[in-house]
Specification:
GO biological process, one term: diaminopimelate biosynthetic process
GO molecular function, one term: metal ion binding
Strand order of the largest sheet: 1-2-4-3-5-16-6-15
CATH architecture of the largest domain: 3-Layer(aba) Sandwich
Order of helices and strands: HHHEEEHEHHEEEEEHEEEHEEHEHEH
Number of domains: 2
CATH class of the largest domain: Alpha Beta
Structural class: alpha/beta
Number of helices: 11
Keywords: Hydrolase, Manganese, Metal-binding
Strand content: 25-35%
Largest sheet: 8 strands, mixed
CATH superfamily of the largest domain: Zn peptidases
Helix content: 25-40%
InterPro entries: Amidohydrolase, Bact_exopeptidase_dim_dom, Peptidase_M20, Peptidase_M20_dimer
Distance between the termini: 15 Å
Cofactor: Mn(2+)
Length: 392
């Protein structure tokens, strides 16, 4: 008979060790599909706990299996991302990045550590019924590591029935959580707009077809697509972020290229925004006697929780910190997250854990960012409580 597990006490007892793990990962950041040191350390720790460990899934992904001390047919996956950003760290503390141009600027070092902490606690006292799959995923930052793991057979090789993720969130107080019943994060698509005109002398505009003029009209008109095509209660963004064209003060160029991004919170709006942008670009250019085309590069889908699983997360977090410390359905983020692919294949939910006030050292993707180590025990406790709640 196993001892009754108190995850809060266990996670606080492990806090100092978790902080060491987290800072070591922070100091040795590895970007997409290069997480060799990180994944090797994870695998070694999990094997030392007696787990069945599988490596090299989706290049550098790791999956560890832990079976509870009690019989049960629940099979749940818990996911943490491992990769760093291609960003030069400007911090000067002792655990700052030792790899120039690479930095844990989004807290994946903390996510990995919290899940490792939970795995350690549960392995030492497996007071649950069923099977837990600890998923350590590479390449979340724009390289679709979740998709790569799925393509490598994640859900075929492991009978995961439901899957859960968590991200630190600056702006939410420490000791708090946020849970969404549906959309959490946006889809993201990039686009290139190529405008073809007729170049010539800037002092003779009547003899040319000015692609810069066309670009200006497209940039202005594109800002009306969201406000006049989506419901006011829907979320969407079209941002044109770069314009390339021209070579001299007195030359109207032959071509201008625009680049940008589209964000939305559901597949229908995603499709609608792309259709409307393409129509606007082609017709605006035509009206000004030019031609233009749009090329879309599909990014991550929207991260949309399954309501029943989100409700489970809400119950677990409120039991852990109280209702006053859990935000239910706050505004979603227009950022993107590749955990969306896992939620397209299995029911589950993705929640936010508070990382404290937004300051320079807490803002995501900031060269001064550092994960808030004080929340490591709470994050580990959440994972343990979630397992206990589902696999009871």
């Amino acid at each position: 008979m196993t001892a009754k597990l108190d995850p809060i006490a266990a996670s606080h007892a492990l806090h100092a060790e978790m902080q060491q793990w987290r800072r070591d990962i922070h100091q040795h950041p590895e970007t997409a599909y290069e997480e060799f040191r990180t994944s090797a350390q994870i695998a070694t720790r999990l094997q030392a706990l007696g787990m069945e460990v599988h490596t090299g899934i989706g290049e550098t992904g790791v999956v560890a299996i832990l079976r509870g001390a009690h019989p049960g047919d629940k099979h749940i996956g818990l996911r943490a991302d491992m990769d760093a950003l291609p960003l030069t760290e400007l911090n000067t503390f002792a655990h700052a990045s030792c790899h120039h141009g690479k930095m844990h600027g989004c807290g994946h070092d903390g996510h990995t550590t919290m899940l490792l902490g939970a795995a350690t606690i549960l392995a030492q006292t497996p007071d649950f019924a069923g099977t837990v799959y600890f998923i350590f995923q590479p390449a979340e930052e724009s390289n679709a590591g979740a998709k790569r793991m799925i393509e490598a057979g994640l859900f075929e090789r492991f009978p995961i029935a439901e899957v859960y993720g968590m991200h630190n969130w600056p702006g939410i107080p420490t000791g708090h959580f946020a849970v969404h019943s549906q959309a959490v994060m946006a889809s993201t698509d990039s686009f290139d707009i190529e405008i073809q005109g007729k170049g010539g002398h800037a002092a003779m505009p009547d003899t040319v077809t000015d692609p810069v003029l066309v670009a200006g009209h497209i940039i202005t008109a594109a800002q009306s697509i969201v406000s006049r095509n989506l419901k006011p209660t829907s979320g969407g963004v079209i941002s044109i972020t770069r314009m390339i064209g021209g070579s001299a003060y007195n030359v109207i160029p032959e071509t201008v290229t625009l680049h940008g991004t589209i964000r939305s919170l559901n597949p229908q709006d995603r499709k609608r925004l792309k259709q409307r942008l393409q129509q606007l670009v082609e017709h605006t250019a035509q009206a000004l006697d030019a031609s233009a085309n749009v090329r879309f590069m599909e990014g991550y889908p929207a991260t949309i929780n399954h309501p029943a699983n989100a409700e489970i997360c809400y119950q677990v977090t409120t039991a852990l910190v109280g209702e006053a410390c859990v935000q239910w359905n706050p505004p979603p983020s227009m950022g993107a997250e590749d955990f969306a692919y896992m939620l397209q294949h299995r029911p589950g939910a993705y929640i936010w854990i508070g990382n404290g006030d937004v300051t320079e050292s807490r803002a995501l993707h900031n060269p001064y960012y550092d994960f808030n180590d004080t929340i490591l025990p709470l994050g580990a406790s959440y994972w343990v409580r979630l397992v206990q709640h589902i696999c009871h």
